[in-house]
């Protein structure tokens, strides 16, 4: 039996043809697809694991993040009034949502129009937002809205995703410095938090419930959001961190009607909150 030798003119280039640009693009697309899939799955995991985070762990995160805001805040009469209003709302929360909690407001004297829910049971309210309000009821709705984010742990989802993405970046880029400061990443995540429409609606529902429980009616529930909606595109931070869809006010009005809430007389702003 004879064996046929391969042609002598076969070269290494013939046996291993160069990879075409098309093959490279396919490989790159598969790699990016795997990365995106992993990030999506990990993000989904974060959304479910936030319910397993003990309150004490959340408070520990707060000890790392809140001091950055405390340095900006000022213990003014306005902050005291806001905390009193928050306490009235907190008393209307279900018992399980009040256990091991100590909600408080930090009032930041800055023209930014925004409010933030921060791990550690802290609500950040900027002077610019208070200046936009025209009644105590409007501020109660905003505070109740932020309590809604706490109840649904939306603030932890944003923080968890930020830390997760930093970890992925550190892994792929070899930048261990990206993980050195949880405090910095936490402040960054919270300041840029962008909630989904469903998260916003859930927070609005709780805000509306608490507002009605405190005042006995839903007056002022939509006033603040209606005015901000008219100012869309004016660079107001609240509109970027708390997206206000076109039908948001309509949904609140529909909820008021479905629940049979009355719309009574609103309470004026306390003197210490009036410029």
Features:
mainly alpha, globular
What does this structure look like?
With 275 residues, the chain is mainly alpha-helical. The chain folds into 2 domains: 19-52; 55-273, no CATH class. 59% of the residues lie in helices and 5% in strands. The protein is built from 13 helices and 3 strands; from the N terminus they run αααααβββαααααααα. A 3-stranded mixed β-sheet has the order 1-3-2. A hairpin with a 3-residue loop joins strand 2 and strand 3. The protein is globular, with a radius of gyration of 26 Å. This is M48 family metallopeptidase. Its cofactor is Zn(2+). Pfam families: Peptidase_M48 (PF01435).
Strand order in the largest sheet:
1-3-2
Beta-strand proportion: 5-15%
Outline type: globular
Main β-sheet description: 3 strands, mixed
The overall pLDDT average reads: 78
Radius of gyration: 26 Å
Low-confidence stretches: none
Number of helices: 13
Number of domains: 2
Q: What would you call the structural class?
A: mainly alpha
* Terminal CA distance: 104 Å
Helicity level? 55-70%
Q: In sequence order, what are the helices and strands, one letter per element?
A: HHHHHEEEHHHHHHHH
Quantity of strands, as a count: 3
Pfam family, one: Peptidase_M48
Domain Peptidase M48: 85-254
Coiled coil: 79-106
Cofactor: Zn(2+)
């Amino acid at each position: 039996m004879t064996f046929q030798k391969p042609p002598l003119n076969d070269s290494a280039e013939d046996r291993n043809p160069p990879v075409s640009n098309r093959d490279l693009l396919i490989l790159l697309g598969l790699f990016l697809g795997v990365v995106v899939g992993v990030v999506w799955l990990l993000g989904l995991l974060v959304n479910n694991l936030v319910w397993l985070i003990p309150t004490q762990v959340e408070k520990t995160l707060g000890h790392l993040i809140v001091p950055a805001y405390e340095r900006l805040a000022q213990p003014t009469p306005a902050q005291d009034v806001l905390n009193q209003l928050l306490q009235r709302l907190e008393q209307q929360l279900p018992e399980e949502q009040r256990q091991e909690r100590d909600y408080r407001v930090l009032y930041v004297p800055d023209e930014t129009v925004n409010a933030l829910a921060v791990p550690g049971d802290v609500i950040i309210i900027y002077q610019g937002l208070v200046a936009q309000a025209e009644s105590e009821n409007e501020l109660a709705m905003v505070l109740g809205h932020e309590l809604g984010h706490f109840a649904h742990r939306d603030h932890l989802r944003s923080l968890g995703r930020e830390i997760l993405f930093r970890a992925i970046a550190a892994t792929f880029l070899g930048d261990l410095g990206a993980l050195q400061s949880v405090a910095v990443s936490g402040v960054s995540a919270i300041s840029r938090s962008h909630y989904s429409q469903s998260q916003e609606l859930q927070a609005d529902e709780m805000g509306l419930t608490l507002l009605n429980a405190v005042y006995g009616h839903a007056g002022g529930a939509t006033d603040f959001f209606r005015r901000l909606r008219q100012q869309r595109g004016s660079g107001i931070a609240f509109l970027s961190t708390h997206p206000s869809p076109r039908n948001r006010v309509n949904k609140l009005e529909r909820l008021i009607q479905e629940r049979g809430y009355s719309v009574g007389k609103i309470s004026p702003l306390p003197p210490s909150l009036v410029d």
